[in-house]
């Protein structure tokens, strides 16, 4: 399908309101989150899903079950019912279907569609992918807002907090950053600004510290994870409890701010664990995703080791039993003990290259072994 043809279709209908057009973004989660065609769904076909499916993922594995609009059938149900007249797949820049690799995400999704729905569904590849479409029809693309492009709420700065030249620490400047539409990351200073929290629509706070106060307990919902930022802290024992809390806020259509003292190590670790568990991405991808939004994140070395161990657990659970729920399998493992049992000591390589176009700090991440 040419970009001009898709542009004409989008002028007539909005994919987000359950029309006859289904747009499937076959790029990685990070690329989709940075920008996508409006209304497109990001298919779940990362390395974890591929391992579980032995290289042949099904639509049940790669498409979300939940509906795009409340009260409407889900995507898979609409496909089964033949409610889509066309399905458009796109990657970053592929020009021809014949040039696609057999193991490319587009090829795997196409085989899954053909295998379950035969020739009944009209499936097209967008010529030139997202790169060309965005250059020709930017008005039909949704760009993820980054901290540099989002103006902070118009809130006067208190006298005791000024710009960097006046002594305000870097981690307290600006405001909390949006990781996901319902998940924000910031510092204790941000958590103490009720006007800022209200301006962002925050309804709950996850306090990942043992000494930061909960300032507005009559106004916001709070949960505290009393951990210190040192190499002896077992923060991983709180991962599942934190993930469940964030999901509970999301389920109530709320927004949660995860913070510690500086918003650099402890709270960043929790956000990384959430992305790894719920978005099924590796630590490296989650780290770059969060760092794009809050460049100063830097979990301590022990926390990075615990996140790597968490990644290996998620991978192992996903590879072990296809029908098993990773969250159910890890729930018992994730229950917090009354106190840390032993310090985490890890030995792994420290250096991962980062894109030169982004001002990233080097991160101590290594790839988990394949299962």
Write the layout of secondary structure elements.
Elements: H1 3-12, E1 21-25, H2 29-34, E2 35-37, E3 41-42, H3 47-52, H4 59-62, H5 75-80, E4 86-90, H6 105-117, E5 123-125, H7 129-136, E6 141-143, E7 177-180, E8 183-186, H8 188-191, H9 194-200, E9 204-207, E10 221-224, H10 239-251, E11 256-259, H11 266-279, H12 283-293, H13 301-320, H14 326-331
Parallel strand pairs: 1-3, 1-4, 4-5, 8-11, 9-10, 9-11
Antiparallel strand pairs: 2-6, 7-8
Helix pairs in contact: 10-11, 11-12, 11-13
**SS element count, helices:** 14
Annotation, overall tally of beta strands: 11
- Spatially, the strands of the biggest sheet line up as 7-8-11-9-10
Helix content: 25-40%
* Helix-strand makeup class: alpha/beta
Largest sheet properties: 5 strands, mixed
Main location: nucleus
EC number: 3.1.3.16, 3.1.3.48
Family: Belongs to the protein-tyrosine phosphatase family. Non-receptor class dual specificity subfamily.
GO molecular function: MAP kinase tyrosine/serine/threonine phosphatase activity; protein serine/threonine phosphatase activity; protein tyrosine phosphatase activity
């Amino acid at each position: 399908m040419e970009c001009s043809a898709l542009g004409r279709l989008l002028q007539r209908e909005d994919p987000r309101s359950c029309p006859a057009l289904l747009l499937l973004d076959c790029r990685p989660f990070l690329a989709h989150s940075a920008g996508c065609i409006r209304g497109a769904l990001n298919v779940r076909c990362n390395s974890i899903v591929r391992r579980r499916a032995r290289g042949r993922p099904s639509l049940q594995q790669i498409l979300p079950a939940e509906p795009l609009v409340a009260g409407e059938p889900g995507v898979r149900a609409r496909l089964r019912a033949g409610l889509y007249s066309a399905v458009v797949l796109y990657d970053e820049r592929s020009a021809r279907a014949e040039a696609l690799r057999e193991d490319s995400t587009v090829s795997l999704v196409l085989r899954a569609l053909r295998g379950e729905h035969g020739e009944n569904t009209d499936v097209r590849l967008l010529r030139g992918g997202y790169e060309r479409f965005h250059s020709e029809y930017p008005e039909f693309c949704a760009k993820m807002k980054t901290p540099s492009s989002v103006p902070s709420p118009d809130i006067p700065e208190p006298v005791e907090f000024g710009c960097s030249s006046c002594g305000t620490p870097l981690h307290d400047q600006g405001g909390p950053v949006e990781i996901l539409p319902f998940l924000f990351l910031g510092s204790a200073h941000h958590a103490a600004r009720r006007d800022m929290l209200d301006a962002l629509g925050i309804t709950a706070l996850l306090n990942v510290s043992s000494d930061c106060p909960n300032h507005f307990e009559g106004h916001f919902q709070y949960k505290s994870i009393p951990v210190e930022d040192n190499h002896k802290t077992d923060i991983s024992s709180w991962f599942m409890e934190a993930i469940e809390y964030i999901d509970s806020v999301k389920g109530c259509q709320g927004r949660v701010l995860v913070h510690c003292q500086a918003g650099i190590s402890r709270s960043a670790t929790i956000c990384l664990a959430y992305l790894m568990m719920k978005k099924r991405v590796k630590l490296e991808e989650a780290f770059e995703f969060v760092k794009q939004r809050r460049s100063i994140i830097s979990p301590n070395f022990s926390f990075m080791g615990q996140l790597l161990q968490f990644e290996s657990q998620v991978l192992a659970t996903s590879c072990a039993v296809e029908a098993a729920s990773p969250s159910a399998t890890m729930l018992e493992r994730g229950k917090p003990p009354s106190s840390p049992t032993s310090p985490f000591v890890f030995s792994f390589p420290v250096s991962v290259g980062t894109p030169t176009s982004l001002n990233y700090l080097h991160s101590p991440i290594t790839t988990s072994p394949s299962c």
